[in-house]
Amino acid sequence: MRQRGARLAFLLLAVAALPLAKAAPISVQDALGRTVTLEAPARRIVALAPHIVENLFSAGAGDRLVGAVSYSDYPAAAQALPRVGSFNAFSLERIISARPDLILMWGSGNGPGALATLERLDIPVYVSEPRQLADIPDSIRRLGQLAGTGQQSEAEARRLERGFAELSGRYRQQAPLTVFYQVWHEPLQTINGNHLISQVISLCGGRNSFADAATLAPRINLESLLARDPDVIVVGAGGEARQAWLKHWRRFPALRAVAGGAVLAVDPDYLQRPTARVLQGARELCAQLDRLRQSQSASPSADLFELSSSPLKNSPILRPASSGLMSSMFSN
Questions:
Q1: What is the CATH number of domain 175-329?
Q2: For the Fe/B12 periplasmic-binding domain, which residue ranges apply (predicted)?
């Protein structure tokens, strides 16, 4: 019995002395098709765009963030993160000081030459560029893989995929409504059919009035809008700008949407940031468009209405100081 105990103790000591097996490296393909490889899950991450910060929280890895850029304001915890500059004017010194083991950059937003500059730091760089609805859950899934939170990110990605599929099944085949989405007021700006917001409109059974425009976010004149005369105008505005933009459209009763009371307002952060919140924005927009369909047989009202039931009614819009961010988000 004593001998057996001694042998067992010896075996336990021998096993304890063995070197621990090294975890397999993590390899994830980014938006540019580059393979980003980490020896271990990222523990200190710098994110160079507000949507990346938000998606990292959705992936269950917000606590890994050690640096972010201006306007990284959601969720609330993101507001306390150290700033390394703005999306198009970040500080290399601050990034280095944060001692990250991974940098998450915005492909089209961080400016030309940003990737080459960051790669010189000899820190792994992952490029994020969600342009399609399907890219949002996919991006969250990949961020979770990089941070070692795959279980949480997979659950969130599947929730979004189910949500988008449910909306598509419920609304996509409904009677179509032509929709003009207003990105900006001066100059008047909208989106073409390649934009993520246009996909949301289609998901809801709508048709983007300017889907055929050559650029992603074309500037248009009032004459072209009058010529297309959409069934619905959707204003992408929040805060003080919301009421001002809605009031502006009262001056054009010749437009079918204005005459029919079909001028809606949505919070821009819900649809103009490619994050998990797009699902909530899509649900609200789909519900409002369906409400319009149901009331088409009733007498048109001259009163404008908006997504008044939305908890985001008073959420701040990106103000003039962020015009550069707006431009980049709506560039090719």
A1: 3.40.50.1980
A2: 44-293
